[in-house]
Amino acid sequence: MITLLLPCDGSTNALLAVRHAIDRFHRGDVQLVHLLNVQPPFSAYVARYVSRELRADFHREDAAKALTEARQLLDATGIAYRVHVEVGDKARCIADAARLLRCDRIVIGTARKSVLVRAVENSLTNRLLDHCSVPIEVIVGAPAGVLARVGIPASLGVGMALLWVSGP
């Protein structure tokens, strides 16, 4: 029986990972699930003018919204789970949580994207592979749309063209 860490942002791909964990629970593989939502920190400028309590309330509310559907899925199956909310860099927070919670595995959902897009956008999956000391199970969702697959290379081309046109 294993303990899973499920990073979840409420996206379709993250919910695929939740459904995968539910399937593993039904097979008798999973004992406990840690459901984790990582919120991005406020900029230093915003943090100067917004109290710590208001920032914490905002992060809690956003996390609750992001985890609503995942919690409903887990509640419907009776899986034992705990909810965690962190604020910071997603990859580091996920890796630290897996270590601190003594998880046996991280299950993460991701979209299918080209290698170039993953390299340029600094994908969470790649960063997790660099930071984690526990195995990561990647559940791949539907292929990304054409725009997402070629959007970054196309935008790089447009940016280069604008630089060339603007000249010295």
Describe this entry's structure for a reader:
It comes from Hydrogenophaga laconesensis. The structure is a single chain. This protein has a single domain, classed as HUPs (Rossmann fold, 3-Layer(aba) Sandwich), CATH 3.40.50. The chain is an alpha/beta fold and 168 residues long. Helix 4 (90-100) packs across helix 6 (124-131) and helix 5 packs across helix 7. The chain has helices at 12-26, 44-49, 52-77, 90-100, 115-121, 124-131, 146-166; strands at 2-7, 30-39, 81-87, 105-112, 136-143. The chain contains seven helices and five strands; from the N terminus they run βαβααβαβααβα. A five-stranded parallel β-sheet has the order 3-2-1-4-5, with helices on both faces. 23% of the residues are buried.
- The H/E string reads EHEHHEHEHHEH
Report the structural category. alpha/beta
Low-confidence stretches: none
How large, in whole angstroms, is the Cα Rg?
Answer: 18 Å
Q: What do the pLDDT scores average to?
A: 84
Which descriptor suits the 3D outline? globular
> Can you summarize the main beta sheet?
5 strands, parallel
InterPro entries: Rossmann-like_a/b/a_fold, UspA
Domain UspA: 4-136
Protein name: Nucleotide-binding universal stress UspA family protein
Organism: Hydrogenophaga laconesensis
